[in-house]
Specification:
Helix content: 40-55%
Strand order of the largest sheet: 1-2-4-3-5-6-7-8
CATH class: Alpha Beta
CATH topology: Rossmann fold
Largest sheet: 8 strands, mixed
Order of helices and strands: HEEEHEHHEHEHEHEHH
Number of strands: 8
CATH architecture: 3-Layer(aba) Sandwich
Strand content: 15-25%
Radius of gyration: 19 Å
CATH superfamily: Alpha/Beta hydrolase fold, catalytic domain
Amino acid sequence: MLKSVMLAVGLLVLAASADGAVQTKKITYKHGDLECHGFLAWDDAVTGPRPGVLVVHEWWGLDGYAKRRVEMLAKLGYIAFAADMYGEGKTVEHPQDAGAMAGKVRMNVEDWRKRGLAALEVLKSQPECDQSNLAAIGYCFGGSTVQQLAFAGTDLKCVASFHGALVTPTPEQVKATKASILICHGADDGFIPAEAVRSFRDALDKGAAKYEFHAYPGARHSFTVVEADAVSKKFNLPGLQYNKAADEQSWSDMQKLFKDKLGK
């Protein structure tokens, strides 16, 4: 009898684990004629629509790092979708290649924004997504991307940029912004000039924008990326460095923003 009870309990535990698992899938979508390969994650233990979060990758392309962040968001109860900003699932490993690909996208700001919006539409189309409760986060190149979406007046409750280059908006763009903005910046980020920080903050202050700017002491560029140290060594880029304290604090700051704006 005891054996039967224990077996039944074990089966229930296994069933509960299966029911509560984070689900993932690749989604192919289009930006004009460009085929893109995005990555979706959600927790099927959560019932009904839940807030959606768009995730935009670093300049390397949609790699494993961005996908890990998508799964982390799913574990927090959101449905998250990683955009493929380059199309065809392209990723690169050399900084020169990454710079060239990101630079090509940045050259056409209108199309740059449309690439992000195409991915956002995919997220909104998911039955688990609450279309009225959306956010976007991005890393490096992706951080600049979510800033562009915010300044274009996209219907987002909030955006969070992690070690992203700063996009100085025009007064008209600040006025059009609907999203609350969180900038997670490395205080020792040598890739982003102090003048860029001043210009960005001045523009938002003058326009009375809703934003927070957190500069984490000792943090350099790519401070949230564990692999940054290996990349730094391989390509002699001392400006790249993982910072555990800044990584954890910035993720916590993002969660506080989401709790306030998305109700989670």
